[in-house]
Sequence to fold (261 residues):
Amino acid sequence: MRLSLSGRIIEVEYRSTEMTVPDFLRMAARNGYEAVELRATQLPEGTTPDEASRFLQEAGALGLAVSCCAPPGLTGDGAGLARLAKFAPLARILKCNTLKIWVNDIAWIQAACDLAQPLGLSLIAQTHTDGPFETVETALASLRRIARPNFGLQYDAANFYEKEEPYGELAVKALGGYIRQLSVQNLRLARPGEADSWEYAGRRYVRALPGEAEGIDFPSVFRGLKAIGFDGFATLNEPRPARVETEEFIRKVRDEIDRLR
Fold:
């Protein structure tokens, strides 16, 4: 299991980032991460092959791999497939064989997998609320319908928790080999009047710090991952933290994952 840092940690409202890609790479490396997930905000439309080559050179010099890329502007139609095809050469330059998608249409996902397969690329979708992968049951049903060997999940226990679904060892075992990567983010129920909370389905949540007692039961998640022989990337997929400085936070998560993996 290798530790990866998502560019979400430096995003501003999913529209821009607080630092350049080279600065982000250096931050990941100096804090003990082995790879990075590059978001659509970091590889926007118009990113050139030369830019991707420079990013690869900088990552290589720092000992970093690119665990995943999120192509920009994907939509569940022919135009979205065309954008995916246009982005694929950049992923290959970055030596990244996994693309994260956010389109929920099953037929589109099948077509996207068929487009990506000859290029040596796989697609993943995050287990997430309000989509075809929001519970173990719906995820398994959707995966069986998609039925493509180059498609799998980025498993996110926090979204199952928010959905009030089982998310620990048994859920991981149920999804088994469909899990290609792990998304790490931590939540807990908000206390009355607590700042920075949000509501989902009648309950209020806040971000939790690594190891916080009321947060996600990550020991159970990792027991499941060990049981299925998971050996992929574990990606810190949090927004910029509100309660601690960013680099202190990513070190805390690093230490917690090192303890569990």
